[in-house]
Write the structure tokens for this entry.
Amino acid sequence: MTYKFKQETLPTPNNSFEKIEKGKAAELLVQQYLSKLGYRFVTSNFRLKVGEIDLIFERKVGKDKSLVFVEVRSSDGFNPRLKLSITPAKIRKIHKTIYFYLQRNPKYRGWAVQLDVVWVEYLEGRVFIEHLKNVC
């Protein structure tokens, strides 16, 4: 299921921003967006040799507990190839990283695991967020 969220009060970053800064800004926007939806932020930029997880959240609905790993992608303007940037190889790297994260954090044993992808597009002075839940 895809969710769209529009926020018109945020300015588009100017072209002097470095790519890394834009990525960090997109991650912060996604962190705020998911927190408003009831996700509880755990950490960001979990890095290992095998890969990286941009954002990690806990989500509790009733008695159900999920650990949500989030891959964030962003672009200036409309980019139809943005959604194609999540390749099978990238997903395999993320899965390996999730495995190691769970090994290092046994308190999440028994929790459901979910991988979400969130795309952030800066277009005409507005920010568009598209959230795809549980991609695999």
Summary: The longest strand covers residues 64-76. Residues 1-13 have pLDDT under 50 and may be disordered. The beta strands are 2-7, 40-47, 52-61, 64-76, 112-123, 126-132. The helical segments are 19-36, 88-104.
